[in-house]
Amino acid sequence: MSNNAALLARRERLLGKNVSTFYNDPVHLVKGEGVWVWDADGRRYLDCYNNVPHVGHCHPRVVEAIARQAATLNTHTRYLHEGILDYVERLTATFDDSLDTAILTCTGSEANDVALRMAQAVTGKTGVIATNFTYHGNTAAVSQLSIRMPPVGGYGGHVRHVPAPDGYRPLGGEGGEAFTRAWTEALNEAIEDLKKSPFGFSALIVCPYFANEGFPQLPPGFLVSAAEAVRKAGGLLICDEVQPGFGRTGSHFWGHQYAGITPDIVTMGKPMGNGHPIGGVVASTDTLNAFRKAFRYFNTFGGNPVSCAAASAVLDVLEDEKLMENARVVGEYARAGLSKLGEKHDLIGNVRGSGLFFGAELVLDRTTKEPASDIATRVINAMRERGVLMGKLGVKQNATKIRPPMPFSKDNADLMLSVLDDVLAGL
Amino acid sequence: MSNNAALLARRERLLGKNVSTFYNDPVHLVKGEGVWVWDADGRRYLDCYNNVPHVGHCHPRVVEAIARQAATLNTHTRYLHEGILDYVERLTATFDDSLDTAILTCTGSEANDVALRMAQAVTGKTGVIATNFTYHGNTAAVSQLSIRMPPVGGYGGHVRHVPAPDGYRPLGGEGGEAFTRAWTEALNEAIEDLKKSPFGFSALIVCPYFANEGFPQLPPGFLVSAAEAVRKAGGLLICDEVQPGFGRTGSHFWGHQYAGITPDIVTMGKPMGNGHPIGGVVASTDTLNAFRKAFRYFNTFGGNPVSCAAASAVLDVLEDEKLMENARVVGEYARAGLSKLGEKHDLIGNVRGSGLFFGAELVLDRTTKEPASDIATRVINAMRERGVLMGKLGVKQNATKIRPPMPFSKDNADLMLSVLDDVLAGL
């Protein structure tokens, strides 16, 4: 602890104030392997949180690919190199045929920053719609989509928000088709409002899994109506796959496939290089070329041979270790376990998710569904004390966020569940 | 060639149109080492262009640092880690005492995107001034600074441009103090114009070496007057060190030190991790905390342990191999050689630069100084044919851009000069 205090003081001096640390007692990590991480005192933690080390912390095949390519050549895309071509060919093969070209960036934020301009290039308009509890990244342009912190100089006026969908408390009070209709109506209102503005309607950008919104359980075809509304209005649909992509949902390689839609533009980041900084934008040839014609774009590090080697190794491991299938099987098992805990603990109001992105919404009362946000904070801190790392999220910040590296096993799930059982019992 | 044609077709199919390749006959690189790169046919090229592999292509110490840390732990800054603290401590030690904290990003573009918001947070204003031939990166916000391509929806109205300084053709026709006064006056006009606008004056952002503007030879203290004007107007001075930083000018570790000024915010990128994607923003504690208070900011990959290990290894090599000193000595030697070539070739109008960022401005006539832009294109293509990679830049696109990896030796300079002599003779 006193060691941590000194580290925290040094951190504030060198990195500034308000740098988040997740837990009341921050974790000082020094080592990672698979689904495990170790702190400076040699204590081991089960990682139920980190999706960036997608195929497992320090996966030897990814490390080896990075080391080999870094020792061979690392330069930019103004020279020809087969690494980026092989990777983009492989990546786009996982999509609908209409999504066949890519721009590689270094982060998901850069990818979304490009995606917004792609939609501008195609439509000639600048108005964007997002949900009111979204997060699409940290660039100046992309942070305008978030309502959490008004920028200096004010919002640009070109953003409209639709309510974050909440399947547990559906808009209009009804689930199923009524909910879908109500939400699509809210979207159409936002579209009409933008059309009347000087900005016009350019795009709807959503995480097709609504991850930050709390990964709500939605009626089948929920986004199909939204996609139709967007197309009818001449706009583009951007799916941010930073969280659900690369097989995490267990059933589909991409979140938009899970949602049953085909977007115009897809963005990705976090898990793509297992921690190596790489992101990307996938679109149709026409959409991408419209962007390349309307904007100059060059990204020095984007698509460099080392980044492409890391990203290719991630695809290799996903395939060879059948990690999407693992996500499906273990996710189902763990959700069943969580539901079972719900029989003992009234706090568990709603268990949901897909594959290895799931959790429970904690409520003070199952009838009123009053969010147990403070208790959620206590739960994740208590889990950390007992050696299990997880987070919380959602509009009410009362859902546990369980999103481990993809090699997460049934044994790992059992450990997580038994510690959670303990923690809930001890509240 | 036919191999290249197939690669180019595949590239256009997968990456889209208008992806620049530098040369008429693009280079297909497969290997790099020190100041050398090799193409797919095994042909070796002297690299006189790339500043990203700052301490040399595939430097074994950087590769080893990346491989070791990637195999140990790679995660984000919400957990405590000493790697980022050790690096930021070391990095900020190279600056004036007032510049003592940092935010790490993945690219120079992200760094400038943050820097603009830092200035907004401090001043409460959003108006920015840049030169009319600058490039500060590829995000939507930062590309608004460039006049090369008007964005869809138009410029935000918050940007003013001052003329790119040209020491060879000084503003008002006179060099020395008159030039400095004329340029500072143009800056003051832009400041006043912004102050009268709804945006107010937030910051001047410049590369202190004016790299993209053609690294002009400027009167001593040129930017000192500019810095004073900015401070007097309540604005912040942002220095973009993506190109001159990390000892490249030979005489100083940072371009702003070379220019004799202390900025409020410093941004960096390209050479920082020798090709590994890392960038950063250095500022005073107060400036950084103002940003952290006004904006939410978290960068998933920024400051991760692997990036910090790569960046630390770059500092190690710079120190141990005395590369800044090498840049000074070899740069001086090479410029003398270029000047000597000027005695034979009338095309060489002006030799300038510092350390290992230098070149010659090619002119059709030394009296009228008419830019030989097309010839410059022919020259760099002919150099490439003869195994020497360099570029061109500047307002008139007629200056050779010689900016090799820092271990560039006198022998390397001799080779470059003799090939250039040949090429110029053969025009």
Chart the SSEs and their pairings.
The structure is a homodimer of 427-residue chains.
Chain A: H1 2-15, E1 29-33, E2 36-39, E3 44-47, H2 60-72, H3 82-92, E4 101-105, H4 108-123, E5 127-131, H5 140-143, E6 159-162, H6 176-196, E7 201-206, H7 222-232, E8 236-240, H8 255-258, E9 265-268, E10 279-283, H9 285-294, H10 305-320, H11 323-344, E11 348-354, E12 357-365, E13 370-371, H12 373-385, E14 388-389, E15 391-393, E16 399-401, H13 410-425
Parallel strand pairs in A: 3-14, 5-6, 5-7, 7-8, 8-9
Antiparallel strand pairs in A: 1-2, 2-3, 4-10, 9-10, 11-12, 12-13, 15-16
Please name the defining characteristics of this protein.
2 domains, 17% strand, Aspartate Aminotransferase, domain 1, alpha/beta, Aspartate Aminotransferase, domain 2
